[in-house]
Amino acid sequence: MIWLVAFLSCIGLICAEAPFNHNVHNERVIGGHNAKPNTWRWQVSLQYDSYNDGSYYHMCGGTIVGNFFIMTAAHCILSIDPSPYRVVVGEYNLYEYDGSEQFRRVERIIVHPAWNEDLAKGNDIALLKLATPVYDNGYVAVANLPYPGQMLPHGFTCYITGWGLMDNIGTVPAILQVAPINVVEHSVCSRPEWWGSIALRTMVCAGGDGIISGCQGDSGGPLSCFTDGAWRVHGVVSYGPAGYCNQVSKPTVFTRVSSFQDWMYSVMQSV
């Protein structure tokens, strides 16, 4: 779901014979590997029931930012009606019920007011308010966030996680994937041979080595970086190149969380 131009809906459906219908439409981390269980505890799977029949599709990632709130990408929101969505926290293997999961209905969707469905204009961020809170069962955690306005230096290593495509032939993972990915500073990412003028300062670029990238299904998920003594979510997967996801000089682009914290805190205090 991180194409530059086309917003992807379901590119794949994988039915799992397990409780709660672990059906998946995935964007996967390319160049990654299976994450260790119970490590990226703020990662969520945002799922959608297209036909109102109880069969859910993994469509995007997300991040726990409060007991009642999930952060994701605005372009993941296919409908402002919250009823077809659910959030799964404590998830690891999408095909199996591990006993660590918590399933939550979405009560309200708040998309950034400046989002206009043009990825190049930025503001690709949304908050989901849950009908009931998530709780600490040992497998979930509220994410730490960066300082407002904080930017990462060129070459800083962060980690991308998700259940998106693992390669350019459409291989879909069952287990959460993780990969190290290096930040590309704005002065580089905004060069014409990179992303040019559509790489904004309100975005974080990472990757572009032709090896590691996000891909369809990773949208909305976190860019996790160890800064200031803690793991913090600095980015929300937003877009990448159409076609092959892992292209040289076309890094994965994330919404920069530190640019939107005032808005996030205002929403979480008012709804």
UniProtKB/TrEMBL annotation:
Q: Name one GO biological process term.
A: proteolysis
Q: Which UniProt keywords apply?
A: Disulfide bond, Hydrolase, Protease, Serine protease, Signal
In terms of SUPFAM superfamilies, this protein maps to: Trypsin-like serine proteases (SSF50494)
Q: Which residues form the signal peptide?
A: 1-16
Per the record, its GO cellular-component terms are: extracellular space
Q: Per the record, a Pfam family?
A: Trypsin
Q: Where is the Peptidase S1 domain?
A: 29-269
Q: Which residues form a coiled coil?
A: none
Q: Which GO terms describe its molecular function?
A: serine-type endopeptidase activity
Q: What is this protein called?
A: Chymotrypsin-like elastase family member 2A
The organism of origin for this protein: Lates calcarifer (Barramundi)
